[in-house]
Amino acid sequence: MMNKEIEIYTDGSSLGNPGPGGWGTVVVVEGKIVDELGGHNKDTTNNRMELQAVIEALKHIHKHHKENIVKIHADSSYVLNGITSWIFGWEKNGWRTANKKPVMNQELWRELISLVREFKGKIIWEKVKGHSGHVYNDKADEIATEYAAKKR
Fold this sequence. Notes:
Layout: E1 5-14, E2 19-29, E3 32-44, H1 46-64, E4 69-74, H2 77-92, H3 106-118, E5 123-127, H4 135-148
Parallel strand pairs: 1-4, 4-5
Antiparallel strand pairs: 1-2, 2-3
Helix pairs in contact: 1-3
């Protein structure tokens, strides 16, 4: 699968915030779903599950499709703003926010930026509107919600 664009759709869910949570990922190549991934956490937040979905997708892609361009579609502004903008300031400021408070979910952000850097700029980030009838995003949401509710 060399030099193909891999599309990843991610979503996180938590039933309560915090509460039981799940993450879901759909991997699409040439318009076809090739992998569906998901997981559960018994006590978490929605933001943590949104981050976990992207992390797990990149780990999977790193193992199986590392040489490809990866386009990540996420409905989480937290994830997209964090990875494309905020993280650079956090790193520069010793993992502190502009208000000098420790960055929340720092261990997940550190893991994510490490994975992103392994791809050497071959990741494209794209916002997708959640719950809008987009088939792959809706599937990622379904996976995350089912894992949160322990139905998968």
